[in-house]
Every structure is written in C-alpha cells, then in structure tokens.
C-alpha cells in the first residue's frame, strides 16, 4: 500500500490513530506531519507518543520555539517543529540527521521547510474538514514505509 486515507470524527479518534501509529512503529522511523495550523498535527503526535509508551504524565507539546523535543520511551521519540526555522543550518546544529535517521522515531511538523532529497519516509497530511473531523492521508515512500503502512492499516479501525 502506498496511500491510505482515514477520516476521524473527533480529537479522541485522532489521538487513538496516533497511538496505533506508535504501537506499530519500529526503530529508525521518519514521519512527516503536514497540515495547516489547527489541523491536528500535535494531537496526532501526542497519540504517537502514547503508543510508544511515553507516560501519560509527560506533556507532549509542539516544540515550536525549541525546534525539537525528546521523549524517552520504548523507542525514543524526537519531535521536531520546523515552523520557526529561520536557517537550514539550525538543523545541522541540533543534529537533525542523527535523530531523524537514528534508532528512534522522528516526527517532523512543517516538513515543507526541509529539502526533499528523496529520502524514504511516511508522509502524513492532515486536513481540517470541520471543528471535529480531520482527513488524514498517509503516503509511503520506500518499501519499508509501504510495509509500515500495511501494518498500520491492518492494525484495526480507529478506536472511538
């Protein structure tokens, strides 16, 4: 499977979908989260963190001002937010490549600020359909991510 589209009907469903992603994630996973402000990127990221066993007591927020938050878990989660990236060299300074292609899971919000060098990844686009509904389109690039997407789709319906 190269593409999979899901519609969620509430913040809870988006969170549960994220948990499902976190549960099937493996080491060295790169997930790009794209969508406008308020599309649900951080909600999905919070769910992924919970699926990776980041404790409920740990707040998962978008690292808008710090560029990256690290959450120790079953697989370490590196959550990037490139919205305020002013210079691509900032990514080098924080060791982006080391985290994005390391042994954990890297989530990147606002990935359009990255240069697309054809790297394999799971691209997730969130579109706000209404106050509650989100359309979430998953696109796999590379065989490994196609298999990841197959496992994700087979993991069951979005919990309600």
Judged by helices, strands and strand pairing, the structural class is alpha/beta
Overall number of strands:
7
What is the count of distinct domains? 1
- Outline the biggest β-sheet: 7 strands, mixed
Overall geometry comes to globular
N/C terminus separation: 24 Å
CATH class term: Alpha Beta
Q: What is the averaged pLDDT score?
A: 89
List segments where confidence is low: pLDDT < 50 over at least 5 consecutive residues.
none
Into which percent range does the helicity of residues fall?
Answer: 25-40%
- Tell me what the CATH architecture is: 3-Layer(aba) Sandwich
Gyration radius over CA: 14 Å
Element-level helix/strand string = EHEHEEHHEEEH
User: Which band does the percent of strand residues land in?
Assistant: 25-35%
Kindly report the CATH topology: Rossmann fold
**Strand sequence of the main sheet, in spatial order?**
1-7-6-2-5-4-3
By CATH, the superfamily comes out as: P-loop containing nucleotide triphosphate hydrolases
């Amino acid at each position: 499977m190269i593409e999979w589209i899901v519609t969620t009907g509430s913040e809870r469903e988006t969170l549960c979908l994220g948990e499902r992603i976190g549960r099937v994630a493996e080491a060295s996973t790169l997930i790009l989260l794209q969508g406008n402000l308020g599309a649900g990127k951080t909600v999905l990221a919070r769910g992924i963190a919970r699926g990776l066993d980041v404790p409920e007591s740990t707040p998962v927020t978008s690292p808008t001002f710090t560029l990256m938050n690290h959450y120790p878990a079953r697989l370490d989660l590196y959550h990037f937010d490139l919205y305020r990236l002013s210079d691509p060299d900032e990514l080098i300074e924080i060791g982006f490549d080391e985290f994005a292609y390391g042994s954990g899971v890297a989530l990147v919000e606002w990935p359009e600020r990255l240069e697309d060098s054809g790297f394999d990844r799971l691209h997730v686009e969130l579109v706000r359909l209404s106050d509650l509904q989100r359309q979430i389109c998953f696109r796999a690039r590379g065989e490994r991510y196609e298999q990841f997407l197959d496992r994700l789709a087979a993991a069951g319906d979005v919990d309600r």
